Amino acid sequence: MAVEYDEIGIWSEVKLAIIREYASAYSRILESQRGKSLPKLRWLYVDAYAGPGFHLSRTTKEMVDGSPQIALKTIPPFSEYHFIDADPKRAEQLRGIAGTREDVYIYGADCNQILLDKVFPRAKYSDYHRALCLLDPYNINLKWEVIETAGKMESVEIFLNFMIMDINRNVLTKNPDKAIQSKKEQLTRLWGDESWIAAAYDTTGNLFGDPEKVSNERFEAAWRERLKTKAGFKFVSKPMPMKTKTNSVIYYLYFASQKEAGMDVVTDIFNKYRRKQGL
Ligand SMILES: C[S@@+](CC[C@H](N)C(=O)[O-])C[C@H]1O[C@@H](n2cnc3c(N)ncnc32)[C@H](O)[C@@H]1O
Prior knowledge:
The protein is α/β, with parallel strands linked by helices. About 40% of the residues lie in helices and about 20% in strands. Strands 2, 5, 6, 7, 8, 11, 12 and 13 form an 8-stranded mixed β-sheet that branches. A 3-stranded mixed β-sheet has the order 1-3-4. The protein binds S-adenosylmethionine.
C-alpha cells in the first residue's frame, strides 16, 4: 500500500528550515573538530519520529523534503543516520530512500525503546561519538527516560517538540472532568512524574483556593526548567512557538545541549525565524 503524506503548514516548514540550518552548522563544527585534533570523532543524525521523508506543502501544493531527506542532504555529511518510524509503511518508504547505503539505519518500531536499546548506545561520549537527535512526535507519546538519558549522556543534543495543544485539549481541560485518563498517564510518562499537576495549576490566585490552570508560557517554563535541572542539559533554548492560523500554539520547539556553541547558533536561527514570523 502506498504511503500517505502529511500536508504541512507554514510552521512545519519553519521547523524544517531550522533543522536544515542547524544540521549543516553542527556537521561543519564537528568536521572541523575532527580535522583539528579528534580523528576518532563521529557524529550521528537521529530522527526518532522520522515520518515518510517527504510532505505536501499546503502553501505551494508541492512535495517538500521531510527531516530525514534534509539530514541526508546535509553537507558535510553525518557519519551515520538513524531514522525511526513506528508506522511500517513509512519505515518501508524510508528504506527505499536509504537504498543500499550502509551509513543509514531504519527502524520500524516505537522510538522510545529503539533509542534506549539501539541508538543511544552508539553515541557514547567516551567513544568520541556525538549525536543530533530530533524528537518530533504528533502527540505526547515520548517518554521522559529518553530525554533524561540524552541529557545525562552529554554527547546528545536534541530538538524537541512539546505538544502543548495535545496537553491542553486532552489533559489540562477547562473542565477537569473532561480530561482523558489515558492522556493524563501519557503526560506523566512524558514529564517523568506527576509534578506536572503542580506546574499546571495555581491555587494562590483566588479566594477559595480552587486550582486554576496556568498560562501556556508558565507551563512551558516549568518544562524548560526540568530539561535543565532533571535531565541535565546545560543549555536549553527559549522555545519557538509553532502556531495555527488563528494564533494558538500547537507545540513549542526546544533545543537542548551541553554546548554553548550549539546554543548560540540555535539562538541566532530561532531569532531569525521569530523576526520572519513577526513574533
Ligand atoms: C510529525 S511526524 C514527523 C515529521 C518529520 N520529523 C519531519 O519533519 O519530516 C511524526 C511521525 O512519528 C511517527 N510515530 C508516531 N509514534 C511513534 C513512535 N512511538 N515511535 C516512532 N515513530 C512514531 C508517525 O508515524 C509520524 O510519521
